[in-house]
Amino acid sequence: MSRYLPLLLVQSPCRSADDVHALDAFEHEVATYLSDFGPDFEQPRMVVYPEIHLSAVSGTPEQRQAQLERAAEPIDGPRGQRLAQIAAKLGIWLLPGTLCERGEDGHLYNTAPVYSPTGERVAAYRKCFPWRPFEPYQPGREFSVFDIPGIGRIGLAVCYDIWFPEVARQLAWMGAEVIINQAATTTCDRAQEQVLVRANAIFNQVYVVSANTADPHGLGQSLIVDPEGRVRASMAGAGQGILTDVLNLDEVSRVRTFGTVGLNRVWDQRREGDPVLELPVYQGRMDFRQR
């Protein structure tokens, strides 16, 4: 039986962190998008929003910091509980964009939560590479994957994380077959970012889903890339809109078994008895026997 993952990617402007009605509008918007597909989908859709979709700030650095301090909540605070309820009500896997989390240590984190169709928070990834000096968040310290029963394993990366190949590689080594990259790229390097999305898919033979914020808060150009680096779907500009797709995670198995374009089997290059590769810059090693 094929492992299909129906996907709805929303390229949308951010909502203000100070907007007290943001969650009501968010629920209505998601429900409206889903209604276009009818009620008879057997497999719950995964709905993906961009980075900071519900936590946008503006103004001077001092004003942005003040807005974040007001908006920050524990990950399972009132806002998180409401998002869990929305996921359960609509019967979806919900990635609502990253939130400003107040950690148990008092620091602010740029955190990507995931909610299941039963209303359970199944993951919460703290962005490991905030874009300094613009982002005032504390860096996360752990990578995050979660399982969709019967379908496969999904890895999380946020915006600038995609510039660091170690992130996607670690997620792939943790078993991720799809990497969700939620972004809020406002700068002219979105073109390079699209190349990195494709490159990370090729390096690791995984799907990569990159959801970027729409105008006026971002440059859009969201895209979905397959395990051979081909663009399956994309938004040409920065306007608001949606991408839909159904990912067949068996394609990951096919590409890794037979190789990219039937040639490059990067996961099977090492042989029994090959030396372990020391990685002194990371104080670690690459040992394929542990994969």
UniProtKB/TrEMBL annotation:
Belongs to the carbon-nitrogen hydrolase superfamily. NIT1/NIT2 family. It comes from the Bacteria. This is Carbon-nitrogen hydrolase family protein. It holds the Pfam family CN_hydrolase. The keyword Ribonucleoprotein does not apply. The keyword Hydrolase applies. GO terms for molecular function: hydrolase activity. CDD domains: nitrilase. The lineage of its organism: Bacteria, Pseudomonadati, Pseudomonadota. PANTHER family: DEAMINATED GLUTATHIONE AMIDASE (PTHR23088:SF27), NITRILASE-RELATED (PTHR23088). Residues 5-249 form the CN hydrolase domain. Gene3D superfamilies: Carbon-nitrogen hydrolase. Keywords: Hydrolase.
